[in-house]
Write a structure and sequence with these properties.
This protein is mostly beta strands and about 180 residues long. The protein has one helix and 16 strands. Strands 1-9-8-3-4-5 form a six-stranded mixed β-sheet, with no helix packed on it. The protein has a four-stranded antiparallel β-sheet with strand order 13-12-15-16. The chain has a three-stranded antiparallel β-sheet with strand order 2-7-6, with no helix packed on it. The chain is elongated, with a radius of gyration of 23 Å. Its main location: membrane.
């Protein structure tokens, strides 16, 4: 038996999640278990077999990758991959946490010199990517704080903050004229 190694992984409710497995050699047999119960297995010949709770919502690839579609809270738990490459049995362990998607971000603002300074915050427990877009400008600005010269603001300009985590994106928008009037 090779070394047993456990990795913390996480996915978001409603997303598809693939365990980060990279097996280079040819595999003869694969078994995936969740909390000691079989959830998927492949004998090297026939199509993979899936068991409840992953039946109908997962795919097992020949390289050992297991993907769960439309992740649910109940998918959280300890998973174990066991594979046989005709020489060794190898075990990989994963602890899957399933997080609620982030909620819409919060936008706050202040006026500094001749600029309107916007700040975007998220209550999400993991680092997110922040992007700003202005309604009158096609470019994206990749930052949590965004500064706009006040003379560039007209009555219709809106700013939208997007937060992205994994495959999930949420946004909030603010009308800039109300910030400076």
């Amino acid at each position: 038996v090779g070394p047993i190694f456990s990795e913390d992984v996480f996915g978001i409710v409603g997303e598809n999640f693939t365990f980060p497995v990279e097996i280079k050699q040819r595999i003869e047999e694969i078994t995936w278990k969740k909390n000691k119960d079989k959830v998927a297995e492949w004998d090297g010949q026939n199509p993979p077999i899936y068991f409840i709770p992953l039946q109908g919502r997962s795919v097992l690839n020949e390289n050992g990758n297991l993907t769960i579609f439309n992740l649910e809270k109940s998918d959280a738990g300890g998973y174990e991959l066991q594979y046989w490459d005709s020489v060794n049995d190898t075990y990989l362990k994963f602890i899957l946490a399933v997080l609620d998607p982030p909620s819409e971000p919060n936008i706050s603002y202040s006026i500094k010199d001749d600029n309107l300074v916007l700040n975007c915050t998220s209550d999400f427990q993991r680092p997110v990517t922040y992007t700003w877009k202005l309604s009158n400008d096609p470019r994206s600005h990749w930052s949590q704080e965004f500064s706009i010269p006040i003379n560039n603001i007209d009555a219709t300009t809106k700013a939208i903050c997007f937060i992205t985590f994994s495959q999930t994106e949420k946004s909030s928008e603010i009308s800039l004229i109300q910030c400076i009037s």
